[in-house]
Structure formats: C-alpha cells, structure tokens
Amino acid sequence: MGKSLAINAGSSTLKFKLFEMPEEKVIAEGAIDRISLGNSLVEIKYGDGQKYETHEDVNDHNAAIQLMLDQLTELKIITDFNEITGVGHRVVAGGQEFKDSAVIDDDVLQKIEDLSEYAPLHNPAAAMGIKAFKKILPNVLSVAVFDTSFHTSMPQENYMYAIPYEYYEKFGARKYGAHGTSHRYVAHRAASMLGKPLKDLKLITMHLGAGGSITAIKDGKSFDTSMGFTPLAGIEMATRSGDIDASLVAYLMEKLNIDKPNDMINILNKKSGLVGVSGVSADMRDLEKVQAKNPRAKLARDMFINRIVRYVGSYLAELGGADAIVFTAGVGENDIMIRQEVADKLAYFGIGVDPEKNDIRGVERDLSKEGSKIKTLLIPTDEELMIVRDIERLRK
C-alpha cells in the first residue's frame, strides 16, 4: 500500500496526479502555474468534487513541490510525506538511449539533461522537477517515463531520413516521435475492448489534442508515427504547422528577413497550424462555432481532417490493413464532427462510425457502424496511469 505521484513539469508549471496504489485510484490532482513569474495559480481537486484554489508567488520548482506537498497534508489528503512511495516524471525526449522507462539515478538524470538539445523546452524542465523532488523526497523511488521510448521499436526504414547517413551517426538525426505514453495506453485498452492480445493486432492510434500525432502499431509495438525529430512534424496542430517543405522554410526566411533559424521554428511551432490558417483561434471548439460564416476557420478544420486521413491511409497501406483505429486526447475524445468526418472519408477501407454511438464526449466506446471491417474506438487517454504503472513495474 502506498501513494504514487505522476508529475509533468514545465518551465513554469507543475501538473500532478496522486494515485492510491495498487488500486490505481485517483485521490487528488492539480497544477501550479506561473512558477517564478509571480501570482501563481495553485489548484487541487480532491475528494467528492472538492477543490482548493489560491494565488501566491511561487519562486521556483522547489517551492512549488514543497507547497504542493504541504497543501496535500493540510487538506488531509495525505497524513505525511512518507505515504508517497513513488514519483513518476514525464520526460519528452529519451533519444535512442531510453527504450523503456527508467529508475532515476545520477546517471539517468545526467542523460536526461544531455538529451535537452532534442527537446529544449521540455527536458530541462523535467530535470528541474526531478532534482526538486529528490531534494524534498530523497528516499522515494523516482522513475522517468519517456514520450519517445514507445517509438524506439520502429524499423529503420520508418525512422530514418533520406539525408547523408553520417548525420544520423554523428548527430542522431532521425525520427523519434512523441506522445508514446498515450499511444501505449490506448493500444492496451483497445486490445482489451477487442478481446485479443495486443501482439496479435494492427492498430492506428490518433492522439488529437493541441499537439497531435498518429501511430501505426504492429505486433504490440510502434511501427511508424507522424511526429519526427521533434513534435513539429506530422499533422496540422493547434499552433504547429506539421509537415512542411524545407525549401519553403528557407524561402520564407529570406522573404521575412529572418536570420536566426530558431525565429522561423518559433513561427512554425507557435503561430501556425489552426491559429495560423484560421486567424481566429488555436482551439478547435472556437473554429467549429464560426466555420459556417468564416471560410478560413472552415479551411483550418478541413486541413486538419485532410492530414489525418492522409496519415491513416498511408498507415493502412504500411500495415496491410488494421483491426481498429482509435481516437484519443482532447479533440479526438470530444469533437463529434471531426470523428464523423474522418471516418466518412475513410469509408473506402471499411471504416464506418454510427452517428448515434458517436454522439458522446470523453467516454470509452466502440463507435463502429454495423458491418464495419475496421473498428473505430473512442478511448480517453490516461498517461498518468501509465506513469504510475511503470513505477510499480520497475519497483519489482
């Protein structure tokens, strides 16, 4: 018996979920934002719909973690810190180094920091959170769960770029993917729903949120995925362009008088995608409200659907068919129209969604129309649950 924390640390945020283990029962969750920026919002949800909320200055991650633990104690969610027996940290980039989650020691922590050039916005923040927890809870088992590790099973022809091979050898220039923890979770749930071993299934999982990625799963492993060297590649996303011709990047830099590559990458990461095309919003819900009267909002949604269909179609070809496609994450779980339109455009492959079954948000369900050759499943993701399960697996 014990309690495990799933942690997602950003440069100025700390999100957490506390589980009673081994029951896997969520007993609290929350977030602290604007760390080191002043006037931080501290939120904790617990009990039977209870919520604690306050604003105060939180100077750094050490202070944020101490505040979180102190408040969990004050709210009597935990009696003392000793009840916490495991902490799992989401880490974006594991490179080629980490093919699985890992117990964090000094060597693992150093490697996470060394891999920061692959995820400069995320790995340093994760390392900061790990150090802070180790300082406050030095004797608790700490585990790193990597977004990329699920994708290390891809065959070389799927993760290599057609550039000089020595760039891969010298610099690790290859596709790494992301959202691996989410894809891994929904794949296991899909196997359970279908009543078959995961290793016997061909699946296409679609993590569609502010960031989006699509993964082909074969023999229980990632076979191909849409995100690339970084999460910028793949489908259109809330603020990310997705796939783009590299020559167009150079052309635009010249036209816009941009000298620094990172300035252009910032445009592709933060000012493109849905918000760049629509000029309205990065939120799909906002676009849905105005698309009837705003052609650019409709175009942004149409492009989003188009890119999903392209990837799913190509993965059906790569896999030689599929047993099921899976919708998950914010848009995938909640946008009824997106799911219907994607399925309708894939009808040629024997995919069909029943409109009545599809009239649901965020509830695990088989959405398939009767007679569909390929099942369509809605599975809410739970990355935090996978994180605490990895804590228990690596504890043994």
Automatic annotation (TrEMBL):
Mg(2+) binds at residues 8, 383. The active site is at residue 147. It is an enzyme of class 2 (transferase). Its EC number is 2.7.2.1. The keyword Transferase applies. Pathway: Metabolic intermediate biosynthesis; acetyl-CoA biosynthesis; acetyl-CoA from acetate: step 1/2. The record marks 179, 240 as: Transition state stabilizer. Keywords: ATP-binding, Cytoplasm, Kinase, Magnesium, Metal-binding, Nucleotide-binding, Transferase. Its main location: cytoplasm. It catalyses: acetate + ATP = acetyl phosphate + ADP. Substrate binds at residue 90. GO terms for molecular function: kinase activity. InterPro entries: Ac/propionate_kinase (IPR004372), Aliphatic_acid_kin_short-chain (IPR000890), Aliphatic_acid_kinase_CS (IPR023865), ATPase_NBD (IPR043129). Pfam families: Acetate_kinase. Mg(2+). Can also accept Mn(2+). It comes from the Bacteria. Its cofactor is Mg(2+); Mn(2+). It is found in: Cytoplasm. PANTHER family: ACETATE KINASE, ACETATE KINASE-RELATED. Belongs to the acetokinase family. Homodimer. Catalyzes the formation of acetyl phosphate from acetate and ATP. Can also catalyze the reverse reaction. This is Acetate kinase.
